[in-house]
Amino acid sequence: MFLSNARSNIAKFLYIVRAIFSGIAVTLAKSAQKTV
């Protein structure tokens, strides 16, 4: 029970980290387009 719970928590954490990184990438891309 604990293992499956930990796995789901890790999956959620990875999903959040991925979303944050994609958001940063989009922001950087937009700012790069503005400067160019």
Task: Please report the distance between the alpha carbons of the first and last residues.
Answer: 53 Å
In this structure, how is the largest beta sheet organized?
Answer: none
Dominant shape: rod-shaped
Number of domains: 1
User: Which structural category do the helix and sheet elements fall into?
Assistant: mainly alpha
Average pLDDT rating: 90
Enumerate the spans where pLDDT stays under 50 for 5 or more consecutive residues: none
How many beta strands in the DSSP annotation? Answer: 0
Number of helices: 1
Order of helices and strands: H
- Relative helix content: over 70%
The portion of residues forming beta strands comes to under 5%
> What is the gyration radius calculated from CA atoms?
16 Å
Features:
36 residues; 1 helix; mainly alpha
Could you characterize the architecture of this molecule?
The chain has 36 residues and is an all-alpha fold. It has one domain. Helices cover 94% and strands 0% of the residues. It has 1 helix and no strands. The longest helix is centred in the middle third of the chain and has 34 residues, at 2-35. The relative contact order is 0.10. The mean pLDDT is 90.
